[in-house]
Specification:
heterodimer, A: globular, B: alpha+beta, about 25% strand
Chain lengths: ~625, ~100
């Protein structure tokens, strides 16, 4: 089996302990079955990581993986998956980012970069096509993520380098730190801390290779068809392009599922008028699309007056409006731009950082946390919130206890403070309250990365899409099967690393067919729509087995106590919650749909069906000899 | 027959059609959600139905009407009659997040 395009078939391995690098050929059979992105990274990590290793130790690895479509003319394909064992969850991390870095990495000639070991002093890696260097980062250790990129381009004397780097939060091993490229974040699961633990400040990459394509004319026809579908779709240009992801704020606020004040209530429509998409539109400067994206959901916004005058940010996105905004009781767009900018520069994940801050605010409000070093962290306090974000990145004072996320903070504080930690598997929840969106809740409970909206987004509940069928958001029955469908749907596109937005929008009804045709025309290998579905299911099963090998089971598929114990107090979902019985009913149905046992462990027959026989030995209780 | 008062809310295109994010509409007791849609469509000179339905008369992708938070597609016909104080929400397809 050999490919004719899309892949270079090359893995660049960099050992920071020995400071050397090598290029390996990737088995073409592996490329056909694992393709790229999240799935190829998961397979490499499954093969190469010993279970139980410290995520912040030299035994962990960072796997950068793009897909075969990256660097071709396929719109929305400049995506990169960073895989590792997460220090935040202890399970498999998949953190995706767009921008220009993914294409640059591909054009340097690599499908995958594996970084292992630990440098004995701060370093960065420069990759200029085939030239790989490990260089001292002593002088830039401590710089924020944006200045790091500026400085390295100057040092390398080439403004065309694209840079993936950490800020101070990653250097200080905060488990809620991210990896930045331009102003894009591989935001979640603490991947920045893994990079920091290796004394690695940045990867600078420059590539000039053309990505080969097996059948240019077939690809051209598919791209034209995609563009036609984009133009026909009202929500793509009328919503996503015009407002960016903020277009969803009004919708979830109306449904009463946009949390406020650390999930004590739902933001109301008055909030939307002050902090929603139309309020933010007034701050727009320009769109900043990823490479090859005709939609451009990412907006640069700036403060032109007031206390934050002159500060701009690429954002804030929908999630950040909630995490740094409503969850902290703040609805000032000017503050949101400033706080988003600060998190990006410090290298903090905005969702987790916001939820940690709002947890502290509630602990202060309830009189549980008394010593905040004089910082008056009350809901709505902007200046103090910004200061606390800075303290988190540097682990200063009492913020040290919170710099590794809400779950670890609650473990350190004890005394029932887990009620105020809004997390699953350690990962803080995004802006969709499961009390009014049951399938989204089950996705948060079961996603292999923790409470992760992008691993199984419930488009039926949030956008009213009737695929695979119309769904009542408040119903419990049927959500197990639906969540499997949603997770396999989303997973299928994390593999060829395509942006999920067009696939959830204009391409929705034909998504798998289109992606199969794109993969076939680019690689020359034959992909059918069913194969694309299988990629998603294979990913979710392999990732689950990775976590099972780390000791995960049904008890890790939980929801935050607040979601299960406190009914929503206001809005259109008032009175709703997910009881233990509800969750168990959904889990049972979900495991059955997945062909997993009652403890959430994949059965051998399912692993075998998906070509994952090598993982069967890791099923708890399986005889190693079998 | 007495009058009832129903709150109607609309997001995005439906906000434009209604003329504001929220309005109060007076109906006759016994009138239903489909009756409300007819009234608002007449008032908007056909704009409401144009936003709700495609050229084949099917509800457009992602467009939903909620009655007191419940998706009207799942409410039995006989339960669609409106009561005083009901809240009707028109939600279009939005994307992203």
């Amino acid at each position: 089996m050999s490919f004719k395009g899309g892949f270079f078939g090359k893995l660049l391995r960099i050992d920071l302990t020995d400071r050397n690098s090598s290029v390996e050929d990737i088995d073409p059979g592996i490329l056909k079955d694992y393709v790229g992105g999240a799935l190829l990274a998961a397979r490499i990590l499954y093969d190469e990581l010993e279970p139980g290793r410290d995520p912040l130790g030299p035994g962990n690895k960072l796997v950068y993986a793009v897909g075969p479509l990256t660097g071709t003319s396929v719109p929305c394909s400049s995506r990169l998956n960073i895989g590792t064992r997460s220090p935040l969850t202890g399970g498999l991390a998949s953190s995706l980012s767009g921008g220009f870095f993914p294409v640059e990495m591909k054009k340097a000639g690599y499908d995958v970069i594996v970084i292992e070991g630990k440098a004995d002093s701060p370093v960065y890696i420069s990759i200029n096509n085939g030239r790989v260097r490990i260089r001292s980062a002593e002088r830039i250790w401590g710089l924020d993520s944006q200045d790091t990129q500026m400085y390295l381009k100057e040092e390398l004397k080439d403004q065309n380098f694209r840079i993936s780097c950490i800020g101070p939060a990653g250097e200080n091993l905060s488990c809620i730190s991210c990896i930045m490229n331009e102003a894009r974040a591989a935001g979640r699961k603490g991947v920045g801390a893994v990079m920091g633990s290796k004394n690695l400040k940045a990867i600078a990459v420059r590539g000039t290779c053309a990505v080969p394509v097996a059948d240019q004319s077939a690809l051209r026809a598919m791209v034209i068809e995609m563009m036609h579908l984009f133009k026909k779709d009202e929500a793509t240009y009328g919503g996503l392009s015009r407002y960016g992801t903020t277009a969803t704020v009004e919708s979830t606020i109306e449904l009463g599922v946009f949390p406020e004040n650390n999930w004590q209530k739902s933001a109301d429509t008055g909030w939307a008028e002050k902090g929603g998409s139309q309020a933010l539109e007034k701050y727009n400067v320009r769109q900043n699309p990823c490479y090859g994206c005709p939609i451009g959901c990412s907006w640069v916004r700036m403060n032109r007056k007031g206390r934050y005058a002159g500060l701009s940010s690429e954002g804030p996105e929908y999630e950040t409006i909630y995490s740094l905004g409503s969850s902290e009781g703040i609805n000032d767009p000017g503050f949101l731009i400033a706080a988003d900018r600060l998190c990006d520069r410090l290298g903090l994940d905005t969702i987790s950082a916001g939820l940690v801050t709002s947890m502290v605010m509630e602990l202060v409000e309830k009189g549980i946390l008394k010593d905040t070093g004089g910082l008056n962290l009350k809901f709505g306090n902007q200046k103090e919130s910004l200061e606390f974000l800075r303290m988190l990145a540097y682990r200063e004072g009492f913020a040290d206890n919170f710099a590794d996320g809400t779950r670890k903070a609650a473990e350190r504080l004890g005394g029932g403070t887990d009620l105020y930690a809004i997390e699953v598997k350690g990962l803080e929840l995004p802006a969709y309250d499961p009390r009014g969106l049951k399938a989204m809740g089950l996705n948060f409970a079961t996603s292999y990365t923790g409470a992760d909206h992008n691993r199984g987004y419930a488009i039926q509940e949030i956008f009213g899409v009737s695929l695979p069928e119309p769904v009542e958001r408040l119903e419990i029955k049927g959500k197990g099967r639906l969540t499997k469908w949603n997770q396999d749907f989303c997973g299928a596109f994390d593999v060829p690393t395509l942006c999920i937005f067009p696939l959830h929008g204009p391409l929705l009804e034909r998504s798998h067919d289109i992606v199969a045709k794109l993969l076939t025309s680019v690689t020359g290998l034959n992909f059918e729509a069913e194969d694309v579905w299988t990629l998603g299911e294979r990913l979710n099963n392999l990732a689950r087995m990775f976590n099972v090998r780390e000791g995960f089971s049904r008890s890790d598929d939980y929801l935050p106590r607040r979601v299960m114990e406190e009914p929503l107090k206001n809005g259109l979902s008032e009175g709703e919650f997910i009881s233990r019985k509800d969750l168990d009913q959904m889990l049972d149905e979900y495991y059955e749909a997945r062909v997993w046992d009652s403890q959430g462990i994949p059965k051998a027959e399912k692993l075998s069906e998906l070509g994952l026989d090598f993982a069967i030995k890791d099923i708890p209780g399986k005889d190693v000899g079998n | 027959m007495s009058e009832i008062n129903v709150k109607v809310r609309g997001v995005s295109v439906f906000e434009q059609i209604l003329g504001s994010r929220e309005r109060e509409i007076y109906l006759q007791e016994g009138e239903s959600l489909p009756d409300l849609v007819k009234i608002l469509d007449y008032e908007s000179q056909g704009a409401l139905k144009e936003a709700l339905y495609d050229e084949k008369g099917r509800i457009k992708k992602g467009v939903r009407i909620f009655l007191n938070g419940r998706d009207s597609r799942f409410i039995p016909q006989e339960d669609l009659s409106l009561q005083n104080g009901d809240l009707v929400l028109f939600l279009p397809l939005l994307a992203g997040g």
